[in-house]
Amino acid sequence: MDRIIEFSINHWDMVLALLATLAMLIWTERRKAAPSVTPQQATVMGNSDDALMLDIRSAADYKSGRVLNSTNIPFAELSKRLDDLKKYRDKPVVLICKTGQTAGSAANMLRKDGYSKVYRMTGGMVEWTNQGLPLVRK
Known about the structure:
The chain is an alpha/beta fold.
């Protein structure tokens, strides 16, 4: 314990940088646009809660393999096609992207448009396929 205190005193700038990094990490995690759900939870929501499974990957990625009963609106087109989703405003919307990263931006967009039940699928389609879950291919 004495060594930790001594290190902290002698290298206060490093300790301060560590604390600032941790604070930014916590702040970023709290600002995430929507709660995340696992692929299994997303499946349950789609089956029992009548959730919209919204795949925001490109059309080519969508055609190569998709979740059953999912709807494809590429992220690049989402802001222009929000009117297509109005009927789902009061239902859960599960966002599916390639790795789970783009879904946060899409969730922000939907939340600003009045959607309150927006979820991100953790790991996106990469996680879905890693778990060996079924895909629909055209």
